[in-house]
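Q: Could you predict the 3D structure of Serine/threonine protein kinase?
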Amino acid sequence: MTVVGADSIIAGRYLVRRPLGTGGMADVVAADDLETGQLVAVKLMRDPLADGAFDRRMLQELLSTAQVIHPNLVGVLDFGIVAHTGRPFFVMELLQGEDLSFHLAREGSCAADWIIPLFCDALDGLHAVHATGIVHKDIKPANLFLDTKPGLPCRLRITDFGIARHMQRAQITQDGGLACTPRYTAPEYLATGTVTPASDVYQMGLVLAEALLGWPMVAEGAFPEVMKAHAQGLLRLPAGIATSPVGQILRRALARHAIERYLQASEFAAALRELDLEAASASIELHAALHRRAMTAQP
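A: Sure. Here are the predicted structure tokens for Serine/threonine protein kinase:
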């Protein structure tokens, strides 16, 4: 399925202006909302859903998520199915900036005194949605957006809330297997398919650790190896950092068993806000340098 062309109209309302990106599951375009005049982003899923996948529960949860207004969330403004193709679409605010995966690919890592406050605010947004009973389940660098609107401070915003989990549920229905991003998936989901707010805490911990240190906590590899790393706590968090305050917070967020983690995103944020950011920066820089030196020294 190709990207929808410029000047096409989606659902009789969204006039496509330009492509914004494409991925394995969806195409994203900038479009004019012909009813409001607003420039929006439309995420058009590549494949039509199987019968029954776009069900009442999905609609209810999308509506619940859309009703949560928070500056660190990118909510769904509208959603539906393109009649002649059966492709689901989701309409969201058009953002300015880049997602965290692009930022890390270019910069390698983030300064603690910059990224930790941004994460705290994003965790506040996550807590607001958890309060409605909704769990994201697919938090990863590509779903965290550094919003850099002119004249406003940078904000880290969570995207694809109310989309990722439901689209993955449809994929599970169609393919009979787990649909997730294994390197950023909580152990309990990989083991039993269970997700709770603590699962999102785990994923936020993985992303924060990667942003601070400059490498993913789970090495890329075959699914069994990735699953083993999560299940057995074989994360690439330097052992020496565990004694520092920032290391202790990360270790708790990344505990193998959900009950041992921060059970709420707000608890994770509160712990991070207690940190001495200058000391945290020094600890991270030291242990990241020692880890890289050790990796370089290996034959």
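Q: Anything worth pointing out?
A: The longest strand covers residues 14-22.
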